[in-house]
Amino acid sequence: MRCLSYCAVPKDFGFLLICAIANDETQCIDLSSVEIRTKNMRSITAEHYAIHAFEREMHENYGIEFYGHPWLKPLRYPADRFDRTQTAENYPFYTISGDDLHEVGVGPIHAGIIEPGHFRFICEGEKVLHLEIMLGYQHRGIERLMLETSSELKRILLAESIAGDTAIGHATAYVEAIENLAGYEISERLQIERTIALELERIAVHLGDTSALCLDIAYQLGQVACEALRTIVINTFQAWCGNRFGKGLIRAAGTQYPLTETTAKLIRQNLKEVHERYRQVSNCFFNLPSVLARFEGIGILSAEQARLVGLVGPAARSAGLARDLRKTLPTQYYRKLNHEIITHDTGDVLARLKQRVAEVDQSISLIQILLDIHAKSEEKFNPPEYKLKLAPNSLCISTVEGWRGEICHLLMTDHAGQIIFCKLKDPSFHNWMGLALAVRDQQISDFPICNKSFNLSYCGHDL
């Protein structure tokens, strides 16, 4: 069991705290709530560390004091945070004193063209004793923007922008919530198309991550080969919907870009080429001692550590945790696929790379199956609907297994069926602490490949 969402809803009397717990055995979500009329609440982080970020967020946004919390620090720095005196400049970093120790700061402006985040290392020589990751440099207030507009089109555009590499995943989670609140059941054909899109997004990013890992160890053949394969996949999205990241493809109740026979044929052709070439290049780097020496035994995260910090997605599966919503909380056409969860047990950079290679292979097989089923369907498609009538006084939790892990969108409506509360969660919310643990006792020069092996989202955390 693990926490999907834990949030505070402002009320006249104080706050309504809502907690959603995923139960993988029963394939259900356990929902709890409590009304609090003061800003004092006992923390449960010391007993269940995976809760730490949820409590820190509520403390930062609303000033709720979670007494007993061991790490009650700012998380995101929203403009409307409760305590404006807390800034990135006076963040209380953890420190260790000692003549043999030194601190190394990296970011928020990086040598590469990436998003802003600050990493503070405490080192003994070249060995990392502790890493603290401080984010929040680009908090965009997407949850607030969701409530400031009544346009469903604008909201879906915001959902697509939560994390740029997960446009399909977050868009699917949002439209599922809207459709469920409206009691709208989409066709099986559209479910198949959304499932294909989710798997294509997974393939594209895993290929890009493989390329980035090869680049960081100066294995140029692997880098350029995998980057070229990623381009083939994202260009497939462009042929389908006009955008290489799939923006515009996922819409509530219908689609503007139904999967045609021509597009399906292109997907088959492109994936056949990607499959063959990716197998060739992965066989190369899995048999090169110079590559294995940089990945094997580096950035190890144990299954127990992964469980304690609440890891999700490929990062969790590569450490031996069988966490995959496609199996445990399936939606779309996953409900009929009986998905098999792939895991690895060494929890190092090599395992996270092997996890990606295995998942690309599995995703290509899934898409081939889905295309065969889709070809037999004669259902007609509907155009999108942007004015669905939502159920009043309702709460909806929508979950999707994105390429990075579990995505969770929680929406609430008022008596008129208008959305009055929105809580969005990207998998990065859980996994940044996993990266901090993985680099302990590593050489500081190992940090870049550890970071790439997780490939977490700065903007997805800072939403």
Describe the fold and architecture.
There is one protein chain. The protein is built from 15 helices and eleven strands. The protein has helices at 52-62, 142-148, 152-160, 167-182, 188-216, 220-241, 261-285, 289-295, 303-309, 313-317, 325-328, 349-375, 428-438, 447-454, 458-461, and strands spanning 2-11, 14-23, 28-36, 40-42, 65-67, 101-106, 118-124, 127-134, 395-401, 406-413, 419-425. The strands form four sheets. It has a three-stranded antiparallel β-sheet with strand order 1-2-3, covered by helices on one side. β7 (118-124) and β8 (127-134) form a beta hairpin.
CATH architecture of the domain at 182-427: Orthogonal Bundle
The helix/strand order is EEEEHEEEEHHHHHHHHHHHEEEHHH
The separation of the N and C termini measures 25 Å
Structural class: alpha+beta
The total of helices stands at 15
What is the CATH fold-level name of the domain at 182-427?
Cytochrome-c3 Hydrogenase, chain B
Give average pLDDT, whole number: 95
> How many strands in all?
11
Q: For the record, what CATH class of the domain at 182-427 applies?
A: Mainly Alpha
Q: What fraction, in percent, of the residue positions are helical?
A: 40-55%
**Strand order of the biggest β-sheet:** 1-2-3
Largest sheet: 3 strands, antiparallel
Shape: globular
Low-confidence stretches: none
Q: Kindly provide the radius of gyration, computed on alpha-carbon positions and rounded to a whole number of angstroms.
A: 22 Å
